[in-house]
Structures are given as structure tokens and as C-alpha cells.
Amino acid sequence: MSSRDWRRPLRVLDAEPGEHVMYLNGKFFRSTKITFDRESTERIRTGYACANCLEVFEVPWPEHCPLCHAPIRERQLEYFQKEYGGVENLGSPVKAFDGGIHERAAKAEEERRRRGR
Predict the structure, then answer these.
(1) Alpha-carbon span 89 to 32, nearest angstrom
(2) Which residue blocks in 1-117 are alpha helix, DSSP H?
(3) pTM metric for this prediction
(4) d(CA 34, CA 92)
């Protein structure tokens, strides 16, 4: 990553309510499931971004996040391994649409031919 690119924010592809509810300071909070693109996920995994507040770093693995003070060097890799859900396919595969598109095109062509007679 070039020296200018490190400032680029992480790219969030999807965010939805998580499965966990927390009680903090007299209030209930629901966790959030965030889906990042592959590059952003890799930046978190390799210590170039904070998994807690998503702050990005020029130099990987600072002792603490300068924004939220999370213990990056000591705990982030452990947190990432625990929380990382793997690769998800967002959206339907192209093959699911392929047959439908061709079928609709064939029907439209057949209808045009029928009308032309």
C-alpha cells in the first residue's frame, strides 16, 4: 500500500443487526454484523486498522488505537480470529440469473415471431 493509500477508510459492504445484546451504562445495545471488502478485511487482520472503531493506521500494530485506545498490538489478532466469520457471497451467483435471462429472451423472440406472422 502506498504512503497515500493508508488514509483510505475501510470499505463497508453491508451492516446488519448482530445476534448479541449488551447491557452497558444502563442501556441495551445490539451488536452489529459488518461485512467488509477483502482488502479492508486484510487491513484489519494485518494490523493496519482498528477492529473496534475502524480507524486506519499508517504503521501496523500500534500499541493502542489513537482514537478509541483499544489494545491493538496485544489483543486485536485474538479478537479478529474470534469474530471473523469467513467469506460471504453477497448477492446471487451469476448462474442463477443466467438461465432466467436466456429463457426470457427466447420467449420474447418467440413472441415477436408469432406477432410478425
Answers:
(1) 18
(2) 38-45, 77-83, 94-116
(3) 0.64
(4) 19
66: pLDDT strictly greater than 80: yes
- Please choose, from the candidates 65, 13, 7, the residue with its C-alpha nearest in 3D space to the C-alpha of residue 38: 13
> Residue type for 81, please?
Q
pLDDT in tens, 10-65: 999 998 988 888 888 899 988 888 899 999 999 999 999 999 999 999 999 999 99
Q: Which three cell numbers stand for residue 74?
A: 496485544
3-state secondary structure of 31: strand
Q: Which of 10, 89, 22, 21 is nearest to 51 (CA)?
A: 10
Q: Which residues are within 8 A (CB) of 79 and not within 5 positions of it... i.e. 6 or more apart? A: 51, 52
List residues bridging with 23 in a β-sheet.
Answer: 28
Alpha carbons within 13 A on the beta-carbon side of 11: 9
Domain regions of the chain by residue span? 5-91
Provide the β-strand partners of residue 27: 24
Q: What is the Rg, in whole angstroms, of the alpha carbon atoms belonging to the chain?
A: 23
